[in-house]
């Protein structure tokens, strides 16, 4: 079976972003960009399923600017077989991403799409569920263990009160949580090999998808700063502050 | 304007977060209805009818709504949506699982984790792990929204007297099935609703030490227990203890961070707490930048002292 793995190029998780002075967004010039950490987990899971003989081909997909090719090369170096870039410099919101991925699913007929549960830039946590809706496929979100046998996937999910195990019929959507696996690093020979793996480039127009944003961002501002606190010398001083100053105990 | 809120429940009680979503709906304005979907959920329906400010509770009771399967819930909600201007849920794992599916079927955007209502079509939501706040305006006819509980003070859970209306169940898609749930059992308050939280990180060393040190302190304070991702990944505590960008978002009156460095992803989940205490042996730890009271030293000495002193 084929597995499709969407990967997003985002500001690296170690970077503390700064809001632009004109409040139009966050500063992205000269900032380190990386693959969304949850998407690395998705790529790793797909590779594991291929190594286990469950999957036969892994297609990495990215949507965005030309530089997303780097993100796709990373996925290829980790072990994806080929890549598709839907190239656009427009703002693409989750509903539009889901529509583009649906169009690709219709061409490629994967049995499974593995997505990160959220992207660490917009923190939306929507695309996988939306794609499942548009394809009318079952979904297992926030996965921390995936087992595939004869047309069904058993997925352990992280939920608010603990864990839940669901069984979904394939084709299906899975979104990954942090504890599903530890993504491998691409080795140098694999990075070299990845340069020769096929990459198709297409546009939203060619896929026939209207990507007009539905949400208008009016402004982006810094969150209110916390007032600086104080260091206390010992436990007695702390307890005194909590009782008499903060009055929380 | 009429607003529909998907109410999460355990068949008997509503989950924390529902009353915060009602508060957000009140800010939007208009009549407020709750949807209770489940199997044998009449207890939860009665609880929903008592929530202040709610005028109607829609109840759908059928076996295939037991596990909250989004494949069944989303089409049901889409069928109801044309009567509403806004469809809300709290931004819990349950709400996040279902609401994007509802939005996509309606061909509208979903607005995630709002923390403020500016007008009926304009909302504020955190992005980049809470390091920026975006004000977004929806151009869609129906607004599908998840509500971050910490952004809105909960309305009273009692005092209301909404009408309860049973509605017909939708089809069972049979696309998914819940095989089992392993829920953490605890007598402590739920993390997201707790007034006090004691949270431990990698510095705790292991799960036994986490429990030996932090449980007595939490007992004394009547606090919930939380953790950093590192503590969860290392197996000290179950996954549902995780506080942060990708865990639970909390804002208690008192948050005590013990052996937690204060990575941005952790701060994203707790920096709106009213009073933050940090205990860490590293005076340079970033957690001290958000702490109201910082105590530098070895947690294995300081935590037992603190427990004894309060
Ligand atoms: C995509 C993504 C999502 C993430 N989501 C989350 C999330 O939701 N929540 C989250 O918490 N993290 C999250 N993280 C992880 C985050 O980046 C940090 O790695 C994590 O928070 C670190 O946990 P920690 O503070 O317990 O561990 P460390 O950073 O290792 O800190 C341990 C601290 O303990 C102190 N210490 C050690 N021994 C003692 C002692 N004896 N006495 C006193 N102090 C001591 C040390 O000085 C240190 O400051 C995420 C990361 C990524 C990439």
What share of residues are in beta strands of chain B?
Answer: 25-35%
Total of helices of chain A: 6
> What is the subunit arrangement here?
heterodimer
Described by strand count, sense and barrel closure, the largest sheet of chain B is: 7 strands, parallel
The most extensive interface between chains reads:
A-B, 78 and 88 residues
Strand content of chain A: 25-35%
Shape field of chain A: globular
CATH 2nd-level architecture of chain A: 3-Layer(aba) Sandwich
How big is the Rg of chain B?
20 Å
Distance between the termini of chain B: 50 Å
Structural class of chain B: alpha/beta
Number of distinct beta strands of chain B: 16
Structural class of chain A: alpha/beta
Compressed to H and E, one letter per element, the order of chain A equals EEEHEHEHEHEEEEHEEEH
CATH superfamily of chain A: HUPs
Question: Total number of β-strand segments of chain A?
Answer: 13
| Radius of gyration of CA atoms of chain A, rounded to a whole number | 21 Å
Cross-sheet strand order for the largest sheet of chain B:
5-9-4-1-2-3-10
Quick structural overview:
The complex is a heterodimer of chains A (249) and B (310). By secondary structure, chain A is an alpha/beta fold. Chain A contains six helices and 13 strands.
Question: Would you give an account of this structure?
Answer:
The complex is a heterodimer of chains A (249) and B (310). With 249 residues, chain A is of the alpha/beta class. Chain A has a single domain, classed as Rossmann fold (3-Layer(aba) Sandwich). Chain A has 6 helices and 13 strands. In chain B, strand 15, helix 8 (287-290) and strand 16 (293-296) form a beta-alpha-beta unit. Chain B is globular, with a radius of gyration of 20 Å. The model of chain B has no long low-confidence stretch (mean pLDDT 97). Classes of the chains: A alpha/beta (249), B alpha/beta (310). Strand 13 of chain A pairs parallel with strand 16 (293-296) of chain B. Flavin-adenine dinucleotide (FAD) sits between chains B (201-203, 228-231, 242-247, 259-261, 263, 265-266, 269, 280-282, 285, 298-300) and A (13, 37, 120).
């Amino acid at each position: 079976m084929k597995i499709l793995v969407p990967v997003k190029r985002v500001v690296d998780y170690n970077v503390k972003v700064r809001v632009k002075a004109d409040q139009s967004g966050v500063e992205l010039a000269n900032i380190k960009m990386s693959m969304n950490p949850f998407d690395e987990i998705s790529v790793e899971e797909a590779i594991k399923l291929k190594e286990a003989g469950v999957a036969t081909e892994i297609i990495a997909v990215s949507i965005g600017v030309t530089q997303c090719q780097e993100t796709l090369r990373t996925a290829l170096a980790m072990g994806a077989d080929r890549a598709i870039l839907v190239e656009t410099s427009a703002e693409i919101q989750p509903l539009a991403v889901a529509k583009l991925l649906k169009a690709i699913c219709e061409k490629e007929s994967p049995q499974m799409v593995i997505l990160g549960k959220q992207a660490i830039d917009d923190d939306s946590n929507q695309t996988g569920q939306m794609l499942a809706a548009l394809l009318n496929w079952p979904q297992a979100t926030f996965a921390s263990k995936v087992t595939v046998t004869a047309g069904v996937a058993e997925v352990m999910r992280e939920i608010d009160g603990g864990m839940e195990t669901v069984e979904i019929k394939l084709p299906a959507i899975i979104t990954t949580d942090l504890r599903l696996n530890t993504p491998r690093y691409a080795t140098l020979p694999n990075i070299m090999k990845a340069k020769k793996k096929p990459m198709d480039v297409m546009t939203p127009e060619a896929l026939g998808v209207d990507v007009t944003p539905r949400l208008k961002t009016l402004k982006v501002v810094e969150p209110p700063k916390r007032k600086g606190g104080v260091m206390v010398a010992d436990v007695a001083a702390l307890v005194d502050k909590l009782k008499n100053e903060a009055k929380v105990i | 304007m009429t607003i529909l809120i998907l109410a999460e429940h355990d068949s008997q009680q509503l989950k924390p977060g529902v009353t915060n979503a009602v508060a957000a709906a009140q800010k939007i304005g208009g009549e407020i209805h709750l949807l209770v979907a489940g199997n044998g959920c009449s207890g939860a329906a009665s609880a929903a009818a008592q929530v202040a400010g709610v005028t109607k509770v829609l109840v759908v009771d059928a076996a295939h709504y037991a596990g909250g399967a989004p494949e069944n819930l989303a089409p049901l909600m889409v069928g109801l949506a044309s009567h509403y201007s806004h469809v809300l849920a709290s931004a819990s794992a349950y709400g996040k699982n279902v609401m994007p599916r509802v939005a996509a079927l309606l061909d509208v955007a979903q607005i995630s984790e709002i923390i403020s209502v500016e007008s009926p079509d304009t909302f504020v939501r955190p992005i980049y792990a809470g390091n920026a706040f975006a004000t977004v305006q929806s151009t869609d006819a129906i607004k599908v929204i998840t509500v971050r509980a910490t952004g809105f003070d909960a309305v009273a859970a009692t005092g209301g007297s909404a009408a309860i209306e049973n509605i017909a169940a939708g089809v069972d898609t049979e696309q998914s099935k819940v095989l089992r749930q392993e829920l953490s059992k605890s007598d402590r308050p739920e993390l997201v609703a707790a007034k006090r939280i004691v949270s431990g990180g990698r510095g705790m060393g292991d799960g036994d030490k986490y429990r030996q040190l932090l449980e007595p302190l939490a007992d004394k304070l009547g606090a919930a227990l939380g953790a950093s991702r590192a503590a969860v990944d290392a197996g000290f505590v179950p996954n549902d203890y995780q506080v942060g960008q990708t865990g639970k978002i909390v804002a208690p009156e008192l948050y005590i961070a013990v052996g937690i460095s204060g990575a941005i992803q952790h701060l994203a989940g707790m920096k709106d707490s009213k009073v933050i205490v940090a205990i860490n042996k590293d005076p340079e730890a970033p957690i001290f930048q958000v702490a109201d009271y910082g105590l530098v030293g070895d947690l294995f000495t300081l935590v037992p002292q603190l427990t004894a002193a309060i």
